[in-house]
Amino acid sequence: xxxxxxxxxxxxIPVLLGITVIVFLxxxxxxxxxxxxxxGSYATPENVARLNRDLGLDKSLFQQYFIWLGNMLQxxxxxxxxxxxxxxxxxxxxxxxxxxxxxTAFVMCSLLGVIAGVISAANxxxxxxxxxxxxxxLGISVPSFFLGMMMILLFAVNLRWFxxxxxxxxxxxxxxxxxxxxxxxxxxxxxxxxxxxxxRLSRSAMLEVLRQDFIxxxxxxxVHERGVIWRHALKAAMVSIxxxxxxxxxxxxxxxxxxxxxxxxxxxxxxxxxxILKRDILLVQGGVVFVAACYxxxxxxxxxxxxxxxxxxxT
Amino acid sequence: MSLFHVTRRxxxxxxxxxxxxxxxxxxxxxxxxxxxxxxGQIAEPKSxxxxxxxxxxxxxILFNVYEGLVRYKDGTLEVEPxxxxxxxxxxxxxxxxxxxxxxxxxxxxxxxxxxxxxFNFDRMLDENHPYYDTGPFPLSFYxxxxxxxxxxxxxxxxxxxxxxxxxxxxNLAYTPGLIVSKAAVEERGADFGRQPSGTGxxxxxxxxxxxxxxxxxxxxxxxxxxxLEAVVYRPITDANxxxxxxxxxxxxxxxxxxxxxxxxxQGEGYNIVxxxxxxxxxxxxxxxxxxxxxxxxxxAANYAINKxxxxxxxxxxxxxxxxxxxxxxxxxxxxxELEPYPYDPEKARELIAEAGAEGAELTFYVTEGxxxxxxxxxxxxxxxxxxxxxxxxxxxxTYEWNTxxxxxxxxxxxxxxMAEMAWMTNDPDTxxxxxxxxxxxxxxxxxxxxxxxNPEVDExxxxxxxxxxxxxxxxxxxxMQAIVQDDAPWVFVANWKQNxxxxxxxxxxxxxxxxxxxxxxxxxx
Lengths: 315, 525
Fold this sequence. Notes:
Chain A has 315 residues and is mainly α.
């Protein structure tokens, strides 16, 4: 087992190196340089050259890449020039906010999606199945940012049940209740599409399992239907559901970018969009590498979990 | 049947969670407290060190925390005393001696004096200064004419310039002229930008990343503490969300209201404030090659474009038609006699025919967005249609803002016949000096991307920059505007009006032509 985990972690290294190269090249190749972005109307060639020198951007691409990589390996992600603070501080702070949002949405969509899928499968072609299938189709079809805006209009502007945006109240206690009231709408908006996808795939995974012999055996032995569905069938179906959850985790993480902008959630997605527009190269590079590393680690964890659940996977 | 139990339990759990969330939600939506003004900003500030920033969004905080030696008089772009109570200018215009205000302290308690002022400018201008590394200072070139700064005594300081440079005073009123606390910079180094200290009416309290910057009334302010207890600046980058926050009561003031959202605030409960500023939106015409080398064709473009329709239909009244290169906000230097080119497609067609440019193919650079560019794609398309109507075939090429600047600033030669552009400045000298002089052609390091050249204009601008007599400068600028309008190196399109919305609990709120947001006198019930 440890051998398998080690192998997976080692195989992540070239992936991460590849990511650093791609991120670096993308930021270097997109037109528009940071000095022009900072100076705006004042970007005379002279001013641009002076600022580029101050920012260390007058060196060759090759040099820049290895300086950046070397520093990063020592834990120094550099300083964001648009925010004037260390990249790693900013990324960690923002990633916390993203984790709260994406984590909540992920738990919501996993639970609701699997439950809906199981209920659907257990009542195949029944009323509950049709209702859920319809709701799922609706959920998959609505773009999350649009849903978010509509929720803001209805629940924040008209009904005033929830605050429009942000993660914490500007005034008042920063307690769990305050967080919950800010979190509810963005988490739901973010979870809807993934819930639909998970529900669909859980349904088909369950249907497949329910057709198998051991289910018939369990029923014949007189196991209560609830036990058959939730204990025997679901456990077997989880083997094919868990990889889907792993993929959806990545989807939720990337979907958070839109939701963070609509709800002004102070997360890493919004940070990256701002940083790209400002050509804040180090922040974009550091942020993407960090998020990619987290995603790779998460996928390793999913693979390991799956190998634990399914003994057929060679370790 | 068994499944029903599960769903019922699930329903109950979901229901109670919802009730809990709704309960706390309603509680946290209490109205914003009186005396505390919450401002919806368009972005997180880059830094609160005034010498390191260039964005108007950041200025909205800075001018409440810091002051310069001089400032713009309320409602104008004319300079008046602030931290300096007066000044003398030498005959030849190269020596400025300022008398400083007595008894002023920075928010950290350290004294404001000539040493502190010298420290400010040395930090920006002297590469060997121990705190030069707290930069970079992108606008330090505002003071590139400064040769030497001398402390005469505790409250007197003398600036010596390399040569006479009239915009010096109005540059001192701009952000790089704001005075930071020497003691605080020495203590905090590069962190000063996140823990600022100035002399202004509000002092810094905290900066919660991506949430808010909070400042509070400065009880020791030399001009009396402001009535507002505190101001909270919230960065809300998405314009729709900013509008929703304003409608939901989460913010008291919203700046840069999108034209389409203005109608939401037309009714009871809100006040819309507008103020024209030192902004001009224009088209650069390539006078070096192609049809626009002929003045008649350049004038024809000015006649052909329906500017009224652009500002009223496309910009929904958030701008006014521009007459010439200088915005009317510079009231002392603005030539009132100039009338905008009227919309006259007939006349345009005649001029084009005279010049033999019928059916000319033109390449038009349009940007997707950018500082002060308003609604560049919609405006570009409308302009294309107007020019098409008088027989010029315009082909649009659209670029993202930074790429656009990278294409336009080096000059249009060999690439395009016209390009959109907008500038916002603090002195009538800046834009024409950087973008209309012969010596400002791109290869000389300027922004004259259309290669306009008129020795008369060059001479007028040079004189206006050297003269320290404001009436004389005004006369020179007015003459320059008349010539430039007739030469038509640009199509003069619009002057932007900045807008803001406040709710009806906010009083004494005004916008300044400088586009700075001054909150000293604002009251919130």
